[in-house]
Structures are given as C-alpha cells and as structure tokens.
Design brief:
- The chain is mainly alpha-helical.
- The chain has a domain of about 130 residues.
- About 55% of the residues lie in helices and about 5% in strands.
- The protein contains 10 helices and 3 strands; from the N terminus they run αααααβββααααα.
- The chain has a 3-stranded antiparallel β-sheet with strand order 1-2-3, with no helix packed on it.
Length: about 250
C-alpha cells in the first residue's frame, strides 16, 4: 500500500472536520446543549493534543522533515519547479523550437563551451548547419547532443511543453495518482510508445537537482521562501501548497 502523504492527511482531516461540523449543525434539534458542548470540547482537546505533540517534538530536536513521507519530500521538489515556471507558460517565453534551442544553448554552455565527447574546450564556431566542431576529436555537436533531447532540435518545443505539463501535474498529485501514458499521448499528440518513452525520460531528468538541464531551461522565475521556514521541512511543504493555491 502506498505511504500516506502530509497532503493526503491534510485533505482527509479537512474533510472530517467539515463533516463533523456539518453533523453537529444538522443535528442541533436532536442534541442537548450539554452534549453539543461536550462534542466541541472533545474537538478542542484533540486539537490541543496535536499542538502539544508538535511543540514537544520541536523542543526535542525532531526535524519536521522527519514527519514528511517520501512522497511529500519529492512533491516539495515538484511544487518548487512549478512555482519557477514562467508567467504565461512556456510558450509565452519560447514560442518555437528555434527559441528553445537558443535558450538551451545558453543554459548548457553558461560556464563555457566544451566537447560532450572528449571535454576539450578548443571548439570551432557554429557552422551553417548550426553545429559546433571540436578541433581535438572532430566531433560535430549541437546544444542537445548527449542530453535528454539528443537529436531533437526540430521539436524541442514539444519537450519543453511536455516537461511543463509533467511539473504542473506532479505538483498537485497525491501519492495515489500517476500520469498515464495514454493521457500523456493525447495531451501532446504523440504515438503511445513515443509518449511512454518521453514521459519516462523527462520524469527522470526533472527529478535531478533543479530539474536537470530542462528544468534549468524552463524554470527560470524566482521565488522567495520566508527565511524562518526550514527548507525541505513540513512548514516548507505547506508554504509551497499555499503559494500554488494563491
């Protein structure tokens, strides 16, 4: 059975509290004032116990991150990437594959151009074929060479849009949900096998630090987490959750 996440528990708790309040409201005529008072006292007592437990763990040095499930910790990553996506979406900033390649070129080589095959830095300028040539090993390459999008210069926008879609959906998914390849295929107009491979490829890339190379390309906005929030902890999780709902 999948491990329950903090988001699952929060949703369940919110539902139960609403149901509890509705039950009391709907049963006002059938309950004595004394019994209603005891019900409310019981609810307040439970909330006080929860607060006491959190304060006690905090004083004992129990990290709030230890309370989070593996899914919650991973979801912090997805929610962060989602908040870093450009205003108006990927197409507002990169309208075609040429602009995607140009940006990927700048992001990948921001620390200097080098050969993906031999790591040499003696590189000839771009040719008319829009490729670089290594003067040491004679390897011709573009910005996508030996990356998640190797050989995909002509349809790099598809990769950017698919990555944006994965980030947005993973940021809002509970631990019981997954992205189905059939749905992914329909959303991006791909053949099933192409969609399945692309989904697996991009999910693996995006799980890297900062979302990997494609994450650094499309997640370029800045967010400011309050300094009193422990990064990777439970408060960080719920801060991101509220930021996405804003």
């Amino acid at each position: 059975m999948p491990q329950r996440s903090a988001h699952d528990d929060a949703c369940a708790a919110k539902y139960l509290l609403r149901a509890f309040a509705a039950q009391i409201s709907n049963s006002q005529d059938g309950l004595t004032a004394d019994f209603r008072r005891k019900l409310h006292e019981g609810l307040l007592f439970g909330m006080a116990l929860l607060l006491f437990w959190r304060v006690k763990n905090s004083r004992n040095g129990v990290s709030m991150q230890s309370v989070l499930s593996k899914h919650d910790i991973e979801r912090i990553h997805w929610m962060t990437l989602s908040l870093l996506l450009p205003e108006g979406g990927v197409t507002a900033k990169y309208p075609d594959s040429d602009s995607c390649v140009e940006h990927l070129d700048a992001v990948r080589w921001q620390l200097g151009l080098y050969c993906p095959r031999c790591d040499a830095r003696d590189i000839a300028p771009k040719s008319s074929r829009k490729t670089y040539r290594c003067r040491k090993c004679a390897y011709h390459f573009s910005a996508t060479a030996q990356t998640f999008a190797h050989g995909a210069n002509r349809n790099l926008l598809t990769y950017f849009l698919a990555a944006e879609d994965i980030i947005k959906r993973k940021a809002t998914m509970s631990s019981f949900e997954t992205i189905a390849a059939h749905d992914f295929k329909d959303r991006h107009g791909l053949a099933y096998e192409t969609a399945r491979r692309l989904l697996k490829l991009l999910k693996g890339e995006l799980l890297l630090e900062d979302g990997g190379l494609i994450g650094r390309c499309i997640c370029s906005k800045e967010i400011n987490v309050p300094p009193d929030i422990e990064l990777g902890g439970r408060d960080h999780f719920f801060w991101l959750l509220e930021a996405l709902d804003a």
